[in-house]
Amino acid sequence: MSLVVDHLRKRFGSVVALDDLAFEVAPGQVFGFLGANGAGKTTTMRITLGVLEPDAGRVTWQGVESHRLPRSTWGYLPEERGLYPRMRVLDQLMFFAGLHGVPKERARREALAWLHRFRADDLANRRAEQLSKGNQQKVQFVAAVLHEPQVLLMDEPFTGLDPVNVMLLREAFLELRDRGRTVVFSTHQMEVAEALCESVAIVDRGRMVVGGTLREVRRSTGRRMVRISVQGDHRLPWLAAVTGARVIQAGMDRSSVELDEGTEPDDVLAAAIGAGARVLHFEVADPTLEQVFIDHVGRAPDEEVHLAPVAEGDVA
Amino acid sequence: MSAATRNIGLVARREFIERARSRAFVASTLLLAGLAIVVSLIPLGVRLVDKATISRVAVVAGEPGLATRAIGAMDAFLNTRLDTNGSPGSGKFTFEEGRDEATATVDVREGRLVAAISIRRTDDGGLDFRVISAGALAADRAQLLQVGAFAVGILDWTASQPAATKPFITPTFAVVDSGSGSIAAPGATAPDAADYASRRIVGIVFVVLSFLTLVFYGLWVASGVVAEKTGRVMELLISAATAPQLVIGKIVGIGLAGLAQVSLVLAPAILALLASGRIGDALLGPDAGAGASLSALSPGLIAAFLCYFVLGFALYAGLYAGAGSLLSRAEDLQTVALPLSLPAVAGYFPAVLALSGSSASIIRVASFVPLWSPFVMMARLAVGTVAPWELALSLGILVATVPLVTWLAIRVYRAGVLMYGQPPTIGTFVRALRGG
């Protein structure tokens, strides 16, 4: 039984935040919810949590409507980070775990264990206002997982983290998945989704654009790609002879070449050899998620969407 | 224990600890408690000053020798300390014989004398005492003079033995104003006037205290909600606990912190007030006129205050929680603080009217209006008589209103806490009420 987002609709005044949004997440998966700001990710998560009511549609987990489930089913990391500024970190973690019904001693033990694992033992007795943003984010993540929820809903969890902490968080995600938890996270960083997710959904302005396993989504545009590395001139001048092929990313090490439908990878290889280039590496690949996103949505995921200003206020 | 009870308890505990540990709470509690103790010791100070004040009183009598006898009796009764052998002139009064009533009245009017006592023999052989004073003669002094008059009456009676042939006639006693000559406070009602003044003082204290605490602690609730919103911890909170748990927990926690502060401020003040009578007696000797300001502070009134405080706070806290949840910025709180305090201010005025002894029907009606009854009914209880059914009805309406307002507050809160960037207008409120 999976997490089913079942044709959600939600309007804030004149702005449509969700427009018949539907997808499914299999249990035990890491699922990427991809979209630019204002795509409806936060609204979907809030409806899932039961703190916001949809105008139509519903969300179910294992067949039960989400608002009927106990709050402790979910572990939520909001996009807007916030803690009680004057409260000690350990006290806050125990407070939030307590709200989910975790006994005091267990909460303390688990909280300290998680802080240790995030290399943040020294934060336990500090007040939240003394913490850096990255550290606050780690504390919030711990607050979201302490009660061992069945489903983790993480809104832009990697934003604002340094590379070391991104790595620690990625490891935590995978470990939680291995413990049978379902992890849903939203992001506009496609490379993170590519590295972590088994399935993804790309949403734009409240509408589902494309969804499925990572492979299905990457192949959804019909385009293919080759990655090629040649000795000498990496700008691949001989490629001009191949119709329907162009360099989308030129690199000293490896260049990515995008192929239109009807153009075969073999044509590129043949042209390279024909031109006397020495091919060091040749690989047929699917397009990156970033390219898929641009193809479907018409712009990069980190470009701002211009919705009516009211919507920002409503759905922030 | 259900999850709801557990979470309400956790939220309330967190709120209580956060308030009680804050420097502002500790500082304001100490300051207010100090102030309350000082205020409660004022009667003692007044007694001290009063003790040092000697009132010059002239005694005039139409009958030869009566003035001299009266002065002797009054001096012995009123100026001798009971715990010592007494020394003349150590008391509150200096008595002297006046020439006639007209001269004495002029002397009183012009401030040379505090009062003049005119004694007349009545037709039935009793004595009539008229105390002529300018303006207000302190209630306790008037009381003492009445005691003195009684003593003179007894001496006069025993002097004209055999007593069996002539029954004792209680002397009549009245305080009149030197200017108008009208009776200012008949002897029999002088203690009642003191009691009424005491009731008014106690009433004012309770009305002001109710008003300040409900508005002040209400603002704590609103600012707490706004702080959670602006600090964005709300997102985490609302995903961990439900809106009713958060609203009720907050109201209970802040209410208990407020109650703790009120108790910490009032308890030492009441103790000081109680002790000041004894301290005064020990330092200054027993005094019949002292301690009158405490007489209206009955346990029943304190119990009523606590009931109205708890229920009134629950009501106002609901309003403030709902309003706070609609705000996005701490600055907005200043914008809504004034309109939010208007219901309380509107209840404050009938309460002040009630304290002045008015029994207009609007005041009686106001004492049943839930937002106002914590002030108006407290005022009525302090100064006058309230029928048991009136008190029961007033409390009953309040008890019934609290859950209704809390329910509305939860509804507004649920929609409001995730609403950012909207102006705090009536329209926003209505939208929130309809569920966002």
What is the number of helical segments of chain B per DSSP (H or I, 4+ residues)? 15
Helix content of chain A: 25-40%
Order of helices and strands of chain A: EEEHEEEHHHEHEHEEHEEEHEHH
Amount of beta strand of chain A = 25-35%
Query: What structural category characterises the helix and strand content of chain A?
Result: alpha/beta
The order of strands across the largest sheet of chain B is: 2-1-3-4-5-6
Q: Which structural class fits the helix and strand makeup of chain B?
A: alpha/beta
| Mean pLDDT across every amino acid position of chain A | 88
Low-confidence stretches of chain B: 82-90, 182-191, 288-292
Largest interface: A-B, 31 and 27 residues
Strand count, sense and closure of the main sheet of chain B? 6 strands, mixed
Summarize the structure.
The complex is a heterodimer of chains A (316) and B (436). By secondary structure, chain A is of the alpha/beta class.
Account of the protein in words:
The complex is a heterodimer of chains A (316) and B (436). Chain A is α/β, with parallel strands linked by helices and 316 residues long. Chain A contains ten helices and 14 strands. The longest helix of chain A is centred in the middle third of the chain and has 16 residues. Chain A is globular, with a radius of gyration of 23 Å. The C terminus of chain A is likely disordered. Chain B is α/β, with parallel strands linked by helices. Chain B has two domains: 279 residues, no CATH class; 138 residues, abc type-2 transporter like fold. Helix content of chain B is 66%, strand content 8%. In chain B, strands 2-1-3-4-5-6 form a six-stranded mixed beta sheet, with helices on both faces. In chain B, α7 runs parallel beside α10, α9 crosses α14 and α10 packs antiparallel against α13. Chain B starts with a helix and ends with a helix. About 6% of the residues of chain B have low confidence. Chains A and B meet through α2, α4 and α10 of A and α1 and α8 of B.
